[in-house]
Amino acid sequence: MTELASRTASKAAAAAPEIGEPRLLRIQEAADEVGLTPRAIRHYEELGLIKPAARSEGAYRLYDADDVTRLRFIKSLRDETGFSLAEIGQLLEDEAARALNRARFREARDPEERRRLLVDGIERIDRQVTTLRNKVARIEEMVAEARSRRAHLVEHLAALEADGGRAKR
Amino acid sequence: MTELASRTASKAAAAAPEIGEPRLLRIQEAADEVGLTPRAIRHYEELGLIKPAARSEGAYRLYDADDVTRLRFIKSLRDETGFSLAEIGQLLEDEAARALNRARFREARDPEERRRLLVDGIERIDRQVTTLRNKVARIEEMVAEARSRRAHLVEHLAALEADGGRAKR
DNA sequence: CCAAACCTTACCGTTTACGAGAAGGTTAAG
DNA sequence: CTTAACCTTCTCGTAAACGGTAAGGTTTGG
Predict the structure, then answer these.
(1) How far apart are CA A149 and CA B123, in angstroms?
(2) Residue A34: phi, psi to the nearest 5?
(3) For the domain B5-162, what is the CATH code?
(4) Which of A144, A161, B98, B138 has the most crowded Cβ, counting Cβ within 10 A?
(5) Where are the alpha helices (DSSP H) in chain B?
């Protein structure tokens, strides 16, 4: 289900807890949520991979749902793909641009403009998919190689068993 | 350094260049061959990932075709999968055992013994494949996620174009 | 209002995966 | 037999990706 609900206005208004204002998480809560450490999250911030939606009065980092999604994305890329954080940053640039596009989209009145934004978003996602698929393809190559070695053994095995265990070589 | 007797016996006769004796490469040559640096190769040796088939009189490392294959495998795993060298070591343990199996297989006369060795080899390859496939599966999950986001946008786009560019929302 | 529980920045430490010499031995060509 | 071009082991350095801890501010339940 892809219900990235449109959010109320901008997300930087920190203070007054309005009705239905989604909870902002502090760093430890966000970390627990996605399975990272606060230190790692700060590190990603230093590298420019993420920035908290807000800061409290006393400068505590406060993360919203989008941030958590982003953090999860970063963790997935880090854990599963083996991309460096720098490469992840590249992938995330497209992500950031998409976020910007969403905001513009909501304000765009001109259908042509909206179309442009949608197409741009699709293209960015396509680039992400292509990057991931390339990685998959290369790993699949290795799998194929392994399977051919396996086939070779299976062949030997079949020959052996066809003999009913009575051959010498 | 005296542990690879079985290996050494078959391929480490360094001196007399017999007929058809395949060339042994020194470290820089091997490195060029697979796209690594000598330093990296030595590093892999320190970690126990590879060991040269032989050493020259003056202790130069000498690599044979199998070594080169192994190095290529290491490089692939490192570059494409993002596995740590430690994890690669695990995958390679199965590889090493397979090499040993091959040697034993050639000497085994008992069909039952040969069958056992073949089955063992197949199981090891299967484990490698499983490891790789798991990684692929996780990356595919990310692809699927991206595609669902994409589908969402395409949907919007379709709605927009169905309007003939005349709607507001 | 106070203390425990969080958080901040800052900086040093660690692991991984090598890169870059230094000091000296080995090979292959001439 | 030289000597340039490799190679050896050793040690130190480095970049990436955090971990840990110090010194000090912030939040919040009681």
Answers:
(1) 12
(2) -105, -5
(3) 1.10.1660.10
(4) B98
(5) 5-11, 27-34, 38-46, 65-76, 85-107, 111-162
Residue with tokens 């290795």: A142
DSSP state of B57: T
Helix A85-107 × helix A65-76 angle, to 10°: 150
Q: Could you tell me the two tokens for B122?
A: 């197949």
CB B36 within 8 A of CB B71: yes
**Tokens standing for residue B167:** 């709607």
> How far is it, in rounded angstroms, from Cα B136 to Cα A136?
6
Interchain contact, A82 vs B81, CB within 8 Å: yes
pLDDT tens by residue, B96-137: 788 788 999 999 999 999 999 999 999 999 999 999 999 999
Contact B74, B51 (CB under 8 A): no
Are the C-beta atoms of residues A77 and A70 closer than 8 Å to each other? no
Distance of residue B107 Cα from the nearest chain A Cα, in angstroms: 10
- The whole-number average pLDDT for the span B85-100 is 88
With a CB cutoff of 8 Å and minimum separation 6, the contacts of B77 are: A142, B83, B88, B91
Question: Which residues in window 109-138 of A are less than 7 A from strand D by Cβ?
Answer: none
Task: Measure the CA–CA gap between B158 and B153, rounded to whole angstroms.
Answer: 9
Distance CA B64, CA B99 (A): 14
pTM of the model: 0.81
Determine which helix (DSSP H) or strand (DSSP E) holds B62, and give its type and residue range. strand B61-63
Longest dimension (CA), chain B: 86
- Indicate the class that CATH gives domain A23-81: mainly alpha
